[in-house]
Structure formats: structure tokens, C-alpha cells
């Protein structure tokens, strides 16, 4: 049930739901009120699609999340005991690809996380994600010159909250430590809030990477819809929905 609800918490489902319901209702010629409601739903779905596809709207949604965090100073990195890189997905092996590959978000988090780990005083680099995802990250980390004996993989989680639950099994909150969390800036608010439910505030150091926001020049082009900006808006809304859901559920 949870996975079903999760799959519907995305704008494209809302748009399709508005339009399909609207089309069904407009076919009811006997009741004008239902037919009228149907046209309202079609109009609402179209308006939502256009709205979320505008660069100006996408920029505002992404900015609302990424503006909250800045990369920590080097003296803060020197206090870390552990660096945790949260995976952002991986492409599975299939017909054309012989091996699983890191998604763009995962690669950015891993690459920057390794650089931060090298700059920090941390002794352990934790790579968290599903089994294939964590192994892909480990392979990349080794290629980036991280010693294998310093890498610890967490392979059982499927989402952010599970990543934290599995992490606490490895490193109990009772142990005093400084934990650097590396994830996309867009994903950081949900991650930090979740970690702070298990660890004390001074134990967590947010380390945002993979910033995607660019200042929007408000002109005619900033209001022309595109599929790329709809995707960006979807990612941002997914994070806000996730933050609200985690606040209710956990």
C-alpha cells in the first residue's frame, strides 16, 4: 500500500487523473453539472502541466530547497569521524548494459563525497543504498583512490528513512561521533531532518552537493513550458511531499 501511495505522489499522475476524470465526466450529457465539472478538471490538469513546466516555476521550487544549505568550512570537515554518502539510484544491468551503473545523482554524490572524505579527518566512508547501488559506489570509490578497508557499504535500504535505520544498526546513536551526510542539495532537508530524529543535533553535519539551481532571468522564455523543467519541478515537489510524509509517519 505504501509503495502504491508513493507512486501516485508525482505531478504527472495528478495531471493524468484530472484529465481522465474530466473526460469521463464530460461524456455525461444528461447531467450538465457533471459535464461542467469535467471541463473544469481538464482545464485544471492542463493548467497544472503548463505551470510546472515553466522554468520560472521550476527555479522557484528548486531554490526553496537548495538555498537552505551551504557546503561546510574545512575546519568543520576536520571534526568528522564518519562520512556517509546517500545513494541516489542506479541503472540495473540489462540487454545493452552488462553491469549496473550509477545514476547522475549517485555519481555526483559519490564523486564529491570521496573528495570530502579525503579532506576530512573521517576514518570510515559509508556508502548507503540498495545492494547493487552500494556496490557500484564502492567500485567507483576504489577507482577514486579510496582504500577498500576504509569503505563500509550498507546494502539493505530502498529509501532515505531505511538508509538511516540501517545506519543506526551499524553505528548506534549512543556512540558519540560526528557524521557528515553527503547528498544532493535538493535532498538534504529531508535527509537531515530524518537523521536528527535518530542522532543529536551536534552529531550531524550536512554536506550538500549536486546543486542544480541556476538563477532565472524573468523574460518570455522563462514562462515557455518544456519537459526538462517539468522533470525538475517533479523532483522538487517529490522532496516536499517526502518531508511532509516523513513528518507524519515517523
Summarize the structure.
This protein is of the alpha/beta class. The protein contains 10 helices and 7 strands.
What does this structure look like?
The chain is an alpha/beta fold and 250 residues long. The chain folds into 2 domains: 2-65 and 226-249, no CATH class; 72-209, Rossmann fold, CATH 3.40.50. Helix content is 54%, strand content 12%. It is built from 10 helices and 7 strands. Strands 5-4-1-6-7 form a 5-stranded parallel β-sheet, with helices on both faces. Helix 2 runs antiparallel to helix 3, helix 4 (55-66) runs parallel beside helix 10 and helix 9 (185-196) runs parallel beside helix 10.
Annotate the secondary structure layout:
Blueprint: H1 2-8, H2 11-26, H3 32-52, H4 55-66, H5 74-77, E1 82-86, E2 90-91, E3 101-102, H6 104-119, E4 124-128, H7 131-143, E5 151-154, H8 160-170, E6 179-184, H9 185-196, E7 204-209, H10 227-249
Helix pairs in contact: 2-3, 4-10, 9-10
CATH class descriptor name of the largest domain: Alpha Beta
Give the number of helices: 10
Strand content: 5-15%
Q: Any low-confidence stretches, pLDDT <50, length ≥5?
A: none
**Whole-number count of domains:** 2
Tell me the CATH architecture of the largest domain. 3-Layer(aba) Sandwich
What's the rounded overall pLDDT mean?
Answer: 91
Span of the ends, CA to CA: 17 Å
What shape does the CA trace take?
elongated
Helix content: 40-55%
* Main β-sheet, spatial strand arrangement: 5-4-1-6-7
Radius of gyration of CA atoms, rounded to a whole number: 21 Å
What is the fourth-level CATH superfamily of the largest domain?
HUPs
Task: Give the total of beta strands.
Answer: 7
Class based on secondary structure composition and strand pairing? alpha/beta
The description of the largest β-sheet is: 5 strands, parallel
Looking at CATH, which topology of the largest domain would you report?
Rossmann fold
Order of helices and strands: HHHHHEEEHEHEHEHEH
Amino acid at each position: 500500500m505504501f509503495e502504491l501511495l508513493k507512486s501516485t505522489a508525482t505531478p504527472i499522475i495528478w495531471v493524468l487523473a484530472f484529465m481522465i476524470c474530466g473526460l469521463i465526466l464530460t461524456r455525461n450529457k444528461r447531467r450538465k453539472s457533471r459535464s461542467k465539472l469535467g471541463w473544469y478538471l481538464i482545464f485544471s490538469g492542463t493548467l497544472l502541466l503548463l505551470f510546472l513546466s515553466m522554468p520560472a516555476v521550476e527555479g522557484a521550487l528548486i531554490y526553496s530547497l537548495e538555498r537552505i544549505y551551504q557546503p561546510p568550512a574545512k575546519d568543520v570537515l576536520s571534526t568528522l569521524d564518519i562520512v556517509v554518502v546517500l545513494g541516489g539510484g542506479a541503472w540495473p544491468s540489462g540487454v545493452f548494459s552488462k553491469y549496473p551503473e550509477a545514476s547522475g545523482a549517485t555519481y555526483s554524490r559519490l564523486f564529491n563525497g570521496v573528495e570530502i572524505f579525503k579532506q576530512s579527518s573521517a576514518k570510515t566512508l559509508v556508502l548507503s543504498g540498495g545492494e547493487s547501488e552500494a556496490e557500484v559506489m564502492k567500485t567507483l570509490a576504489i577507482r577514486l583512490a579510496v582504500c577498500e578497508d576504509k569503505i563500509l557499504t550498507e546494502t539493505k535500504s530502498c529509501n532515505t528513512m531505511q538508509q538511516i535505520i540501517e545506519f543506526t544498526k551499524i553505528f548506534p546513536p549512543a556512540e558519540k561521533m560526528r557524521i557528515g551526510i553527503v547528498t544532493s542539495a535538493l535532498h538534504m532537508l529531508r535527509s537531515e531532518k530524518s537523521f536528527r530524529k535518530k542522532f543529536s543535533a551536534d552529531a550531524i553535519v550536512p554536506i550538500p552537493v549536486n546543486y542544480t539551481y541556476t538563477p532565472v532571468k524573468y523574460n518570455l522564455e522563462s514562462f515557455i513550458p518544456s519537459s526538462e523543467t517539468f522533470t525538475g519541478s517533479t523532483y522538487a515537489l517529490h522532496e516536499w511531499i517526502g518531508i511532509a510524509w516523513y513528518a507524519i509517519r515517523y
